[in-house]
Amino acid sequence: MRLDYTTKQNAFRTEVREWMAKHVPAQPLPSFDTAEGFEAHRAWERTLNKARFSAVTWPRHLGGRELDLIEWLIFEEEYWAHQAPLRVNQNGIFLLAPTLMEYGTEDQKQRFLPRMAAGEDIWAQGWSESGAGSDMAAIRCKAIRDGDDYVINGQKIWSTRAVWADWLFGLFRSDPQSTRHHGLSFVLLPLNLPGITVRPIKQLNGLSGFAEIFFDDVRVPVDNRLGDEGEGWKICMATAGFERGLMLRSPARFQQTARQLVALYKQHQAEADADPAIRDAVLKSWMHAEAYALATYRTASRLAKGGQIGAESSTNKIFWSELDLLMHDTAMSLLGARAELMAHAPDAGDVGHWLDGFLFAQAGPIYAGTNEIQRNIIAERMLGLPRA
Q1: Residue 247 has what pLDDT?
Q2: Shared domain check, 148 and 28
Q3: Does the annotation mark 229 as catalytic?
Q4: In degrees to the nearest 10, what's the CA dihedral of 346, 350, 355, 356?
Q5: Residue 12 confidence (pLDDT) above 70
Q6: CB 126 within 8 Å of CB 156
Q7: What is the C-alpha to C-alpha distance for residues 323 and 346, in angstroms, rounded to an integer?
Q8: 241 lies in a domain?
């Protein structure tokens, strides 16, 4: 596959490259799983928004640049090459926003999207529940209609960014007599409403990247429902498609990690070559990262011509999550005992980020729908195999 960029695309790359060189912080921001780091990352979102780089594919009147997917891929390549901060509002920008574009009213788009692009509202995701896990059809948290409000009672868990986020988008059972994927509604709500209790959940690194949320007679206007009542499952599946498809995990993210892994291998090549499996893993990581990028360009080109992405998003999700594991497992092997150093350890130097990445990579096969579930989807919807 040969990538030939237009004059306009090359000019855009130059613009992004020059802007990033001037604006990316010289030192990494604190983790956005801390109060200080969360606000520092919110400030970065505002900086991006001033240049309309927060959401480049969005319409201009909502805060974007109306760019196509190829230009978005170019933006991501420059973003990751300059090691710009992680996006604290990725749940909003990459998951909720495209869902709002498809199912939201014009009023909802105007209410939520410009503030999202500006970093004024940071969004958390409220899907998982105790006892439901990855089976969103087993959701029990209720949103019962009472006049112009829903009254929400129940619990959500593993809500990413919810400790300091401003808003939550979630799936709730609006028909108490319904079962499975019927009778669910997609509701947007601020996390400072009376009756909401947010309890942090510590990750393996000791930071609070997730939260458990309790709802006790929380009243939310019906106008905050996305789509029709009972249509939540269909809308939620669209959001899941965005999560597993192109936007949440751009190939540039993995290409940058692959480049760093190659550099790490070269630093440790003398001892690493004692085990041929390590060199093979480095080569495989680099090749898979490039293959994922080329496949994404092909998909973006197809979508630009009116194509669609459906069940194949599950293949994307499996590929990038297992690639992330491979790269970080290989880095751990290269670093040996130093791999155990956290980023803040005095002797970590420039290797501490590898442990953070390794710990996060362990979640890849779980979030956005477990890889086991994705393999079932591929078997049934892409290959036409019978259910077991």
Answers
A1: 64
A2: no
A3: no
A4: 90
A5: yes
A6: yes
A7: 30
A8: no
pLDDT of residue 379: 84
Distance, CA of 17 to CA of 216 (rounded, Å): 48
Question: Is there a domain that residue 47 lies in?
Answer: yes
Mean pLDDT of the region 116-143: 85
Domains: count for the chain: 3
The verdict on residue 100 lying in a domain is: no
User: Quick one: 224 and 263 in the same domain?
Assistant: no
If you ran DSSP here, which 8-state letter would residue 337 be given? G
Tell me, yes or no, whether 258 and 373 share the same domain.
Answer: yes
- Whole-angstrom Cα distance, residue 223 to residue 144? 14
Residue range of the domain that includes 313:
249-382
- Chain mean position to CA 260: 21
pLDDT band of 246, cuts 50, 70, 90: low
Amino acid letter for position 197: T
pLDDT digits (tens, 9 = 90+) for 73-95: 999 999 999 999 999 999 999 88
Residue 260 banded pLDDT, cuts 50, 70, 90: very high
Q: Which of these is catalytic: 120, 243, 290, 380?
A: 243
Quick one: 331 and 255 in the same domain? Answer: yes
Q: Judge contact between 116 and 184, C-beta under 8 A.
A: no
More confident residue, 244 or 217: 217
Q: Is residue 269 part of a domain?
A: yes
178 or 64: which leads in pLDDT? 64
4/297 Cα distance (integer angstroms): 11
Burial (CB count within 10 angstroms: exposed 0-12, middle 13-18, buried 19+), residue 273: exposed
